[in-house]
């Protein structure tokens, strides 16, 4: 039995699901109104814990009212402590917390063509002219939604085989201090003074939201995640020994794992059923940044739906960008490049706005070649030549 019928069903209310729902709620003039059901997991283990997204863009953006903070300067510290501080004008580096984004979305979706249903999706079944989404509410009641188009943003249960898969895993503390300890004008983007793991790299990350408050994170690129006690030990060492911050109060925590993989992530699983967001390739494999690519991908999907076209989500990153990322991942995984030295050199020698556009996949071929002059050529060429010989394997569980 079908409980709800809609033109579009969006599964998941994270960055991708909410971004698509918001775009569908605001059709352009003359576009067909699309009845949409947003299926969000109820409070509990199926709901993703609160998280922070960071991205950069020029000027104002559609989510500015929900931002925690934004900055025009970034800093990278090499393993020897040498600091590179750069302005990124006309860009701004923006910090958006998921709870603020959800509140913004709730206001924007109220009384519109998007209906929110709190239920955990169990399966999606293709049927003629669409699909059935089978879900269960928190009280155990089942609900079935029939839609012409279904967009699934849930994390994949298992990644496809890849030549290289590393994990970007992190834990962060929101801290408050009695004395002014932070410079709220600059983000500590990558601080490589942290002890480096035997395989991969690590760095500290500081988002100061005021002189007394900041999000302080410890991040690793490696093959395995750590135990919580290991993250906390590394965080305390970074905050106290390297940042010199003492007597702080931890007001909240966040933790996550972002797969950095050159796997081919399918964007369509059945007729009328698609994936969007990180599970459809929105994460940039070389950096882990996802939010900006989600906006491009969901914007293209909404434009196609409103225009009556087939809404296959586009690949958010170009073939050239994906190839460069595959080579870099391969080089990092094989230990051919020193990760801290690699990223520090890029930020030291390439103008920061251009480098951020490069990391966002928005540079031209001549610009990419110019940036390539600042990487270890022999190591990258070796990785490029050996990459096609590397077998694709299923990555081990995190």
TrEMBL record:
<protein>
    <submittedName>
        <fullName>Lycopene cyclase</fullName>
    </submittedName>
</protein>
<dbReference type="Pfam" id="PF05834">
    <property type="entry name" value="Lycopene_cycl"/>
</dbReference>
<dbReference type="InterPro" id="IPR036188">
    <property type="entry name" value="FAD/NAD-bd_sf"/>
</dbReference>
